[in-house]
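Lecture 7 notes: from sequence to structure.
We start with the chain below.
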Amino acid sequence: MTDPLAALHVGTEVVDADLTGADADELRETLGRGGPWTLRRCVLDERDLSGVDLTGALLDRVRAPAVRLRGAVLDGVRVEGGSLAGADLTDADLTDAHFSGVDLSRARLVGARLTDTTFRDCRMIGADLTGMRSLAVTFTVDGCSLALARLADASLRGWRLERVDLSDADLSGADLRDVVLTDCALRGTDLTRARLIGADLRGADLGEITPETPAVLRGAIVSTAQAADVCRALGLQVL
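Predicted structure tokens for the same chain:
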């Protein structure tokens, strides 16, 4: 049988390697002492890479659903396409990392360091982003689906979000002061106890307006049309 780790011993650029059969300890050790790695179209399904240092790596269309990267160092990593669906990135360092067109559905980023991290056009349905850590969480989300995502108590003050779907996401207790939402969806989003003073929601789809909506959106900036919808939900006539 061919050694699944053989490709990693040839050089730092590895193409079309299936590493699912590699010994977990040897795989972590090999990746940790080499690099920066370029992995193209490699397969890492359900591999345990907890604690591995992949600083500066490029993961191009890598398939790694349910991969475990708990506490991994992914500083400056670029992930382009591919799948990290169900990945465990708990407490991982993602400083300066860039994710583009990646499937991160159901990924766990609990306690992850997200300083200057960028997510563009990613599928992040059901992702868990609670407990994000950093003195200043400054990650960017653009064109992503965060439907059903968990962002309870997140500090997102002053963010600029464009083309982000937050439908049915949990933003309860989140700090959303001064955020600006452009072409975003808040359909069914849980905003209970969220702080929305100065939040510009004029570019957001607020979904169904109910009599409870005014209290939830207290302090937010809405458009004339949105205000009219709120008034109608309260039984007021808008002339």
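Points to note: Residues 56 and 106 are 24 Å apart (CA to CA). The radius of gyration is 21 Å.
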